[in-house]
Amino acid sequence: MSGYNIGFNNLNFNYLPSSGTGYSFASMPDFFSTGGLFPLNTSNFTMPEFSCFGGFDPFGFSSTGFNFMQEFFAAQQQQNMFAQMWGNFMELVKNYKMPQFNFNFANPAGGKADYGNYTQKATDLYKGSAEDLNKHLKGVLAGKGQKLIELQNKYGISAALLAAIANSESSHGTSPAARNKNNVAGIMSASSNYRAQATFDSVDDCLEALAKNLKNNYVDEGLVTISQIHEKYSPIGAENDPTGLNSNWGKVVASLTDKYNNLA
């Protein structure tokens, strides 16, 4: 085995064989290295060595001289340790506003971000009913189908797209921002320099702001398709997205929009 790769969110780390001791990190960020911001003993994250000599192996590995399952679960435990450590570090980045650690997860080489080719248009109006939409709306979004239809009629923005964005941004109406701030659209507060989510008097007010924003600042400026909207609404590599979730925004919103339109 020459090595293997594991990803946390959209950031991948490669494991390569070390000198007879197992698999270790080949690309640890500088801030984890000796003398870095968070110096660590990287031997804590050395993976057990899997020897491949052929033969039947239901897990895709073969091991000689060691108990395979013991190795396997030891490796899994250490992967979990790193995942937790990485999550804690990214919370530090977010909470203490360290832009120097704003990694471009989707484009580590600094190339142009890929926003896909999602050609569904914000102006392709939803043809279903409020009741149809309500089947897909939970949490604080429950029963908001009629409001979304009204917004479609007022601003000319697809109710299916509005529902898709709201569900994606609010974890289907259950996120802390949705429950505590009535913010179901991931709208950031100008007063926080766009680092914290805005607070609305009601979920209806937030949905209104979403539809108005899409009409005035996107469609009226020629940004009509989901891919075009993605690049401005949820830019990859944004400072307020330290964990790189923005990279999947277009794919998720396009999928949900198609689902709601097809089931109408």
What are the main properties of this structure?
264 residues; three-stranded antiparallel beta sheet; mainly alpha; single chain; globular; Lysozyme; 8 helices; disordered N terminus; 2 domains
How would you summarize the topology of this molecule?
Blueprint: E1 4-8, E2 11-17, E3 23-25, H1 68-95, H2 130-134, H3 145-155, H4 159-169, H5 176-181, H6 203-217, H7 226-233, H8 249-262
Antiparallel strand pairs: 1-2, 2-3
Helix pairs in contact: 3-4, 3-6, 4-8, 7-8
Described by its quaternary structure, the protein is: single chain
Proportion of helical residues = 25-40%
What is the radius of gyration computed over CA atoms, rounded to a whole number of angstroms? 23 Å
What number of structural domains do the residues give? 2
- Biggest sheet strand order reads 1-2-3
Using DSSP, what is the number of strands?
3
What CATH architecture of the largest domain do you see?
A: Orthogonal Bundle
